[in-house]
Amino acid sequence: MKGKIPPHGSTDESLFVSLGPIWFDNLHCTGKEKTLALCPSNGIGVSDCKHSEDVGVVCSDKRIPGFKFINTLPNHIENLDIQVEDVRIRPILSSYRKRIPVTEGYVEVKDGGKWKQICNTEWTQFNSRVICGMFGFPGERKYNARVYKMFARRRKPTYWDYSVNCTGNEAHLSSCKLGQAESLKSNGTCAAGLPVVVSCVPGRAFSPTPMSGFRKAFRQEQPLVRLRGGAIVGEGRVEVLKNGEWGTICDDNWNLLSASVVCRELGFGTAKEALSGGRLGQGMGPVHMNEVECSGFEKSITECFFNKEALGCSHEEDAAVRCNVPAMGFQERLRLSGGRTPYEGRVEVLVERNGSLVWGTVCSDGWGTMEAMVVCRQLGLGFASNAFQETWYWPGEVSADAVVMSGVRCSGTEMSLSHCLHHGAHLSCPRGGGRNAAGVSCSETAPDLVLNPQVVEQTTYMEDRPMFMLQCAFEENCLASTSNQVPANSYRRLLRFSSQIHNNGQSDFRPKASRHSWVWHDCHRHYHSMEVFTLYDLFSLNGTKIAEGHKASFCLEDSECDEGIEKRYECANFGEQGITVGCWDTYRHDIDCQWVDITDIKPGDYIFQIIINPNYEVPESDYTNNIMKCRCRYDGHRVWMYSCHNGGSLSTETEQTFPGLLNNQVTHR
Predict the structure, then answer these.
(1) Which H or E run contains 150?
(2) How many Cβ atoms from other residues are within 10 Å of residue 211's Cβ?
(3) Number of Cβ atoms within 10 Å of the Cβ of 222
(4) Are residues 366 and 504 in the same domain?
(5) Residue 76 predicted with pLDDT over 70
(6) How far apart are CA 275 and CA 270, in angstroms?
(7) How many distinct structural domains can be found in the chain?
(8) Which of 59, 63, 431, 527 has minimal CB crowding within 10 Å?
(9) Could you tell me the residue range of the domain that residue 417 belongs to?
């Protein structure tokens, strides 16, 4: 074992290359030791290991009983750290007890195994801001103090011995300084004070009583910041909008202060983690900000000081965040049953039936990647890696075999399966539950395919090709339907181009079908691992499709890779197919079906569109960037492609100049 731990969410030892000594070998811990040095081993420094055997860990977010938050920052008041076992907001008023999330109540700390209130004589608004932030809320508000005075008189509080001193920009209470010891009366009451109460303002996505009808009266402004590539709500690569184009932030000086500004701006609380090194995937386009420095009180990350020059920054340094989000209780209403690991199993949901809560299965009719994505997100298990319509090999709870949810259709962005469209109480599932119930497997990482729009622009041209040279393409339906009635000596006019498809995600892109089920195409003498890998379409300016093409993934392989990354996949000799993280697959303009048949198209202006992985066969961390659009001009003799860009890369106003087209988020179902 060496002195490096991989980033959260990874156990891949290849992430780090170490040169130092290996301190431990053959460790045997019981789990109760306070340090690795107390575990039996060969002895410190005694090892026959190589660095290819280095180990890593992934730590759970759950705290063990008795854990104490320890502030590592120096404390200048009492020279003491805030050390408590846990913190909570306990709802007191009946109107708040049943609300989810809990937004108002007593602030209580667990110390010595007992929950205690905090005396409010030295409590400040800054302290409330920190408490709200750590529980996933962007801000605090005033509350009705008179009601709480009445409650405190009726029920005697148990006070903590100390006060708290926060500046307001801390991400967590443990980063605040310990205030003076409270002068409690002999009967344990707070001198001239009451228990601390906070009332927090939830973000729009977590509002307990959303006024959707009221909001429709206002035009929602284009946000200046967004998160991309995260597995769960409140995490992702940070992207900012500048001059109508989305770009990333370089991770130089990236810290919790700046990350918390982003989180609050987006309606979450403070940041749990400020991630660097493209940990949540690499973006495309420009790097807009570098060396960001925030005070923590800015309304937007765009108000912080930053270096406008991003010289030396690449997308390998894209900054990301994990934000504190409110506890919504979604995880408690869903479970995976029967799987070999906690990351897979039959999906079982908790529903109310005849006045009691019962567990049951989900009908698998139409169950797919998007539904599986929501399940994995709801359980905090990352991304979906597979969606299953049969689960006979996972024996779930027999008492939960009955179908309790059917007709589920998700967009893929919902926080809970119950938020997706479904039949409600009117169940319809001809195949039944049990062995035919829906199932999933989840993964902490996922690939992310992105087209290079510049390559399409630079390689577009037109070719007239005789039908007798297009027989294989004809057999694979790569020509317009009118080609059925034309003689063999006629020509087809083809709009040709190259496409370069990058994997900017965190895991390799692999075809869904296993090798034994790949389809052999005798004409082209190759295997198809995905029947439809890309769609090529030509639209009129009003959004009407006038020509189309498609490309089966007869060969998913690493054409080229970023520096330092080795190719893993090649199609020769029935090899493994896929696209490695940091590599790209190039489909050259001169191969069959890499075109749109425009023989029957009149000269004019059009919109050209490519969609990768259009049927969501393979789960990805972000589908919105799988689409690419271009302006296309055809004068009858030549063709031009210009203004090519990926879906979601431009502002809403700019996207609207491409009428009739949407980003690739469940547009094909």
Answers:
(1) helix 145-154
(2) 8
(3) 10
(4) no
(5) no
(6) 14
(7) 5
(8) 59
(9) 330-443
Q: Is 30 helix (H, G, I), strand (E, B) or coil?
A: coil
127 Cβ neighbours under 8 A, 6+ residues apart: 164, 165, 166, 168, 176, 196
DSSP 7: P
Same domain (yes/no): 289, 338: no
What is the SS3 assignment for 395-408? CCCHHHCCEEECCC
Which residue, chain included where needed, has tokens 């403070």? 270
Helix, strand, coil % (nearest 5) of the chain? Answer: 15, 30, 55
- What is Dmax (Cα atoms) for the chain? 104
Give the integer Cα–Cα distance in Å for 620 and 663: 15
Euclidean distance between CA atoms 554 and 453, whole angstroms: 22
Q: Residue 175 falls within a domain, yes or no? A: yes
Short-list 171, 318, 314, 320, CA closest to 231: 320
Q: Are 355 and 272 in contact (CB under 8 A)?
A: no
Q: Residue 10 — pLDDT band, cuts 50, 70, 90?
A: very low
Give Cα separations from 533 to 109, 282, 449, 543, 594 (angstroms). 54, 22, 11, 22, 12
User: Do 281 and 304 fall within a single domain?
Assistant: yes
Residue type, 535: L
Higher pLDDT, 41 or 277: 277
Taking only the tens place, the pLDDT of each residue in 61-75 is 444 443 444 433 333
Cross-strand partners of 608:
538, 630
Note the Cα 192 to chain centre separation in Å: 48
Question: For residues 637-658, b (16+ Cβ closer than 10 Å) or e, as one string?
Answer: eebebeebbbbbbbeeeebeeb
Would you put residue 101 in left (φ > 0), alpha (ψ -120 to 50) or beta? Answer: beta
